[in-house]
Structures are given as structure tokens and as C-alpha cells.
Amino acid sequence: MQIRYFARFGVTEAMIAETLAGALSRGGDAADVFFQHRVSSDVGVEDGAVNRAHASVELGVGVRVVKGDQTGYGYTEDLRLPALLECARTAAAIADGPARPAPVRLHVREALPDRYPLVRRWEDIRPDEKLPLVAALNERAFAADPRVKKVNVYLRDEAGAILVADSSGRLVEDEQPMTLLFLSVLAEQNGRREQNGYNVAGRAGFEFYSPDRLDRVIREAVARTTILFEAGPPPAGEMPVVLAAGSSGILLHEAIGHGMEADFNRKGVSIYADKIGKPIARPFVNIVDDAAPPGARGAINVDDEGNAAGTTRLVEGGVLATYLHDAISAKHYGVVPTGNGRRESYRHAPLPRMRATYMLPGPHETEEIIRSVKKGIYCANFSNGQVAIGAGDFTFYVKNGWLIEDGKLTRPVKDVNVIGNGPQALERVDMVSNDLAIDEGGWTCGKDGQSVPVSQGLPTVRVSSMTVGGRGS
Amino acid sequence: MTKTTPSLLDLTRSAADLALKKGAGEAAAGAWQARHVEVAWRDGKIEKISEATTRGLALDLYVDGRYASVSTSDLRPEALDRFVEDSTALARKLAPDPFRALPDPALYQGQARVDLELEDPSHGALDSATRRRLAEELEAAARAVPGAGQILSVTTGASDTRAESVLVHTNGFEGSRRGTDFWISAEVTVKDPDGRRPEESAASGSRFFAELESPGDVGRRAAERALARVGSVKGPSAVLPMAVDARSAGRIVAALFGPLGAASLQQKRSFLEGKAGATVGSALLDLVDDPLVVRGLGSRLYDGEGMAARSFPVFEGGVLRNYYVDTYYGRKLGMAPTTARTSNLAWKLGPRSQPELLATMGEGILVTGFLGGNSNGTTGDFSLGVRGFRVRGGRRAEPVGEMNVSGNHLELWKRLSAVGNDPYRYSAMRTPTLVFDGVQFAGT
Fold first, then answer.
1. B201 → chain A, closest CA residue
2. What is the total count of domains within chain A?
3. Under an 8 A CB cutoff, do B267 and A71 touch?
4. Contact A390/B197, CB-based, under 8 Å?
């Protein structure tokens, strides 16, 4: 038996072969089927009690047919053959010609890497273990500071698997766990209120929640909230921006990552179209998009098209090296797919997407970078960002940061959006520290209405000038 | 009149029964089914066709004074049986929550006796050739504008959905509804001599196919907007009047609705807490939540909790009149429920068009798009990336971009100085052009 996980739903090799034959019945170049089963469970604390839970199941299948750059797609929740064949017929309509042969036999892709080994699988964790964990976090957050007035805790876990089989006969299954813990704090001081939080996420089992990690969740959530009482907006205008190691990788995600997704370049709508092989940053700038960080939220063993997923070099020695490809763009450019074909669920066709995007360590010292700034801001924590792919403008929203005056962090700043232009901002990365950290937070990336989990990281970096959306001067 | 697929109604009723059988004291079951078709077209040919009928089921379980919710797309009877059983067992492990219960059945009564006309009976006649023709026409119109030689790429799309849902509450509510919507859109990328490739888009959406704007108008508008972005500059940091065009204004208005929600009030995360009856904006901030707009994108006869939909004032002459109160947080706060979520917003419109408003404004910036940024619901502080146009001498002047606006909502809305006569039809928020005095812009 080749099919392991999805055998429990009655999915057979013969069904898949017949579906692929239906998909190619009108002459598509290639076809694939994508089965998905995802079971998630949330437990939550509010107003002092573990008093809510949510469970969800997603089970479905999508059939895709590709003809050149064109895609036909159909999906259903019904995993029986007639429904699969109906999806295949729908997707097949993208092409209009004689049928192409489909594989009669499928072969299971050779062993995948094991980037998210599980010690304690979520299927085996009973509520009696999860509930005390979130209850204790709630109590400890209140105990950490008398100003804490409201605490919310959510623990989410996901189990399940994907199966991809394509018209080359390749079949692959991957079990993809995920967990996320979110602690949010509301504090009061002298009639003022502030809210903030901290979250951690990864492809891991219950063992993810080590005492160290839980301590950090409480410490960070409370500290990031209470410091807001001392914080204000920074001044408005252009100034040097220092990005702290870790979640500041949001800079890369927005300033270059999306712009390097090959679909945008294939269509000529990215500001990076036609820039491969050209220098775009200082020689010490190296940026990768990596499927491999063990247990990272953005890690994958294989992409959602069944292609091997490794480490893709976006910028090498300051030179733009490789786009992020799915199968369609790889064929268009005549290169090997980079394993970036990802999708939110069976309801969506894959697109080139990021995984874990980060910058490699550089030659500068963190202290030296901060010392070098006469007047600017230091960005520590972020909530969200966005980019306009073609114009190149991008933003990230700084939840916590510091003003830098005469080389020192002087007063905390908060709630400020920073805006720049992608290629310009990369050119202006003029110092890179050696303290790379990949953030442990629960980042989610949105594109074309599809959300996928990602990771990001950065060493401490200086951008010589960006526009800071503060107030006054 | 509309009819519901018998199987969907049966599925929902039997799911509610299953919840009771597995030990829930009461339950809400909601099931939905949708047919969604989407055609994307790019530069002279089809890019993607997606077509599917999809369904799902959700349950709220009230078990021994405890609460859990579930959702699933695995509707095989044996799987559903086990899932509900596991979920009720999980609920029993939780702490009791005395505020959890289905709504007061009295609130189910009194649904408006109107036909909201949310379903276009001609939907089934829409075929793939028509969708393709719409997409082609959108592109052709975009490529026909003066200056089209600068266009790098045009992506257009036509999509439509026919959705139906059923809601059953075990304390006496059963409702079903059906609706259609149709959308066409165009996104145009143009060449800026400095290497940038600015993009802009336009869309039209409607409950009825015949009410869609012509693809010619939508395609042309997208191209004109994109070409107008060429040569955009970053202006200096300054405090200036800000006009926000009708299409974009939803972004800044949306920041009010989280803090208007009972969950935010009860969790002390709302800068609007304690402001009922207080002035929070200028007299021009005046809008009603109106679920009963015929053919409205946000229209409904009952809300997500089965409560009969009624219109209510949200802001009246700048005074906050009502919060969005659901059953659960309403009970925690001792407040009567209104509804959990917005339906359609009906603004008290001003007498003037956007060009007339700009003429009065004189100097300032017209914002036509936001980029990222966020709003702090607890404090009201916001900071948002913007693009748009400088306004000089009362007229739209050069394009500006890579700028930012920031401030606090409690101050911003008091400086609302004009409201246009031009509600944006393609969003249930129906925002008109809004003009604010004294807004902090960050640029060079």
C-alpha cells in the first residue's frame, strides 16, 4: 500500500490515477490532486477561567490542470470518485485539445526530510494537560504585575496531512503539525490603558512548551504592555531606522520577499522584474528563503505541489540571485522549482509563497550600529506589514521601539508605521550585525486571499533612512 | 421567494439534534453551501479558472453551563458523530461560564416583512463565455485609454457566488437565506520612467448581474488610476487637511467598529468605552447600521445569532448612540443585544461632490489608498501608510506616495469637516469622501 495517511478516507491509487486521467482529458500539460486533512483545536482563557474551546476539521481535495501559464482548478469536500471526476472535468476545461496520457501507476516520492519531528503528538495530548497550561499562564500573567487587569490566553494545535499526486506519477504525503500560543495583556496605570501581547508558534508537538518558553511568553507579554505607559509617538519624517534582531525580518518579507515571488515577475508587475543578476544591496547583504529551519512555523518538508523544498538564495553578496518559484513559474523561466508552491488549503491553487525568510549575519556589532545613529528609531516588535508589489512601497507597523538619540536608546516609542520603497530600502541597509535570530512568533502571510504560515528573521540592521509615521518634528 | 436545498436544511437540523443527543443542553447549528466561479484574465488570455461547490457546518454547543464551538467540512455522518461527541466531551472539561446561552427567543421575533432581493434568479444562466467576455472587455477598455503605451500588464477578473445557509437554534429559531453576488475587477500595472511599476485597480460588485457597472467603465477607471500614479513623489512632513476618497475611506472607518463591539468594551480594549451619549466626532459623523437595504451587499433579515435585524443609529450628529452588542458580551456587560456585526452603513451624506470638496479644501492631500499600518483599539492611536494626490489651489495636483498619516481617532473624528455625496457602492460600508482638518502627514 502506497497511500498511508489518506487511506483512512478511502483514497486509493486507482482513484487518483483516474482523476488525473480526467484532468488531462482535454490536453492540459500537467495536472495534480491535493488532498488535505487538518484538525485543529483551540482552548482559551478569558476573565480568569478556561471557559472556551473551538475545534475544526478541514477535509477536502483540489484538482488542478496547467496549460502553459494557465490554470484550471476545482475542489470539493467529497472525497469519493464521482466528485473527484467532476473537479477534474472542471479543471480540465482550461485546455481545449486531445487528451494526454496520465500515469497508470503512481510512485511514492523518496524519503522526505524530517523538519518537524514530534515528541508528543497532539492526537495524544488530552485536555487534562492543555487546560492547566493555559490556566497557569493566566495566573502568572496577573501575578507578574499589579497593573495587569485583563489576560487572554489561546492555545492552538493542528494535526493532519497533505497528499499531492501529479501527472508525472509522483505521490507524496506529509504530516504537518502546528501549534500557536497567544498571550494578550491589558494593563491600567493612572486611568490609562494599554494592551499588547506575545505569541509563539512552530511545527511541533506539546513538547514545544518548555518551561523556558512559557517563562518568556509571560515576561515578554507583560513587559511589552507595561512599557507602553512610558512610550509615545516618535517624530514624523525621514530618519535612520535600526531593526532589532528577530521579528524585524518583516522588513525582508515586505521589502523584497513578495517582490521576488516569481508569479509577479513572470507577469512583469514586480519592481524586481528584470533585476536578477544585478547588485541591489551592499556585498554583506545575503537573504534567503528557507524551508528547513527545524520546527519553524514556516518550515515545510515538501511544498504543496510535491516539490522538494530547500534553501533559496534571494540575495547573494548583494546581488539578486533567485526568484521564489512554483511549478508554473519554474517552467516559464526554465529553472528547477524552488519548493515555494504553497496554498492555504484545498480550496486554492498554489502560488509562489515565502517560507522562512531571513538575512544572514553581517560584519557589524549590534552596539556599534546603535552607537552610529544620531537621531533615529530602534524597532523592536511588529504587528503587521504590507507591500505594493509594483510601486515597491512597503510598510511595517512598530508596536514597541525606542528613540535613538546620540547613539543611545532614550525613550520608548509605540504604534508607529514605517514606510519605505523596497529596492531603495535594501540599498540603504548599510550595517548588518552578527546576531541573526529567527523569530518564534506566529506570523501569517496573506496573498490573493490565501493565508499561509511563515517565519522571518534578521540580525540587527541599520537602514540609513526611511519615513517614520510619527508626529511633530 | 427563495427555497432552500432540502439536504442543507436536513443537515442543519440533524446536526442540532446530534448535539442534543450527545449531551448539549442547547445548541446552534449553521450550515452553508456555495457555488463559486472565478475567471482571471491577463494580457490577452485566461490566467485561471476556478469553479467549485463547497460546504461546511458549524455548531455552538452549550453543555452543562459550559461552551465550545466547532466547524467542519467533513460531513460524513460517522465522522460528524464522533466529532460532536469529542467536542461535547471537551466542553465538559472546561470551566462553567454562566453568561453562555442561546439568545432570548423574543429577539428572534419581528423579522421585517420585506423581500431584500438578495438573489438574482438569472444567476444560473451566467455561462463561462459571458464571464470570459467580461474579462476581455475589461482589458480592452483599460488598454484603450490615452497613455496606454505605458501599460505593462492588465489582469482582470469576473467572479460570482451563489450561497445559501441555514441556521437552527434548539430554543426556537430556524432560518435560511440565499444570495448571489457578482464582481468584475481590473488591475493595471504601468511603467514609471524611474523603474517603478505602479499598480492600481477598480472593481464593481452587485447582488444582481444586471446592476454591475459596465466592464468598459471599470477597465478604463483602473487604467486611468494607474497612469495617474506615474511620477509620484514623497511630500514633506506636514500637518494638512486630508480628504479620503470614498473607496478608501472604509479603511479608516473600519477602525471604529472593533472598539464599538461589546467584546472590546468588556475586555477594556476600547477607546470608545463609556462614550455612549457622548460626542466623539464632529456633527458630520452621522451614520446608521441598516440591514434592510434592498439588494444591499450587507443586508439580512436576521443576524448570525438569529436575532431579527433592525436598523439603529451608530453615530448621530457626532454623538455615539449604539454599540454592537452580541448575546454573550451583552450578558457580561448587562447590556441589551443589538447585533454582533455591521450590516450596511447608511451615512448622512453631504451636498457636495469630491471635486467640490477639494475646491473648498484648497491645500491638502487627497488619499486614494492606504498601505499597511494599524490602529490601536485600546487607545485610538493610529498610523497608516498612504498614497494619493497633493491638492493645490482646490484641485488635484501631483501624485504623492510613500507617506504616512498618524493621530488618534478621538481627535481625528472631531476634525471631520466635510462628508461627500458619493457613497462607495461596492462595499457594505458605503463610505463617502471624508475630509479632515489638521492631519499629521509624515514624508521627507
1. A388
2. 3
3. no
4. yes
Query: Considering chain B, what percentage of its residues have pLDDT values greater than 70?
Result: 99
Which ranges of B215-326 does DSSP label H, i.e. alpha helix? 215-227, 246-257, 262-266
pTM beyond cutoff 0.90: yes
pLDDT at residue A277, as a whole number = 96
Minimal Cβ distance to B49: which of A72, A269, A469: A72
Return the C-alpha cell found at A198: 506575545
State whether A263 and A184 are in the same domain: no
All three cell numbers of A32, joined, read 495534480
Query: How many Cα atoms sit within 13 Å of A344 on the Cβ side?
Result: 10
pLDDT surpassing 50 at residue A54: yes
Average pLDDT, chain B: 96
Average pLDDT for residues A258-265, to the nearest whole number? 93
Which value does ipTM take for this structure? 0.95
User: Is A296 in the same domain as A208?
Assistant: no
- In chain B, residues with a C-beta closer than 8 Å to the C-beta of A468 are 404, 442
Q: Which domain holds residue A219?
A: 122-230
Interface-testing mutation among A8, A52, A258, A414, with chain B (most B C-beta atoms within 10 A)? A52
Interface probe, candidates B8, B33, B48, B444, chain A, greatest A C-beta count within 10 A? B48
pLDDT confidence bin for B2, thresholds 50/70/90: very low
To the nearest 10 degrees (0 to 180), the angle between helices B215-227 and B128-142 is 40
Sort out which chain B residues have CB atoms less than 8 A from A52's CB and list them. 67-69, 94, 97
Contact check, Cβ <8 Å, B197/A384:
no
Same domain for A164 and A92? no
Chain A residues in contact with B91 (beta carbon < 8 A): 53
Residues of B with Cβ-Cβ distance to A236 under 8 angstroms: 237, 404, 406, 440-442
What is the pLDDT at residue A109?
77
Flag whether residue A149 sits within 8 Å of chain B, measured between CB atoms: yes
Q: Tell me: pLDDT of B1 over 90.
A: no
CA–CA gap between residue B321 and residue B347 (Å, rounded):
14
Give the pLDDT score at B217.
Answer: 98
pLDDT for the residue A103: 86
Q: pLDDT band at B6, cuts 50/70/90? A: low
Domain presence at residue A252: yes
Classify residue B277 by burial, with Cβ atoms within 10 Å: 0-12, 13-18, 19+: exposed
Domains of chain B plus CATH, in order, are 6-33+50-108 (3.30.2290.10), 123-227 (3.30.2290.10), 238-442 (no CATH)
Q: Round the average pLDDT of chain A to a whole number and report it.
A: 96
Domain contains A45: no
Backbone angles phi, psi at A7, to 5 degrees: -60, -30
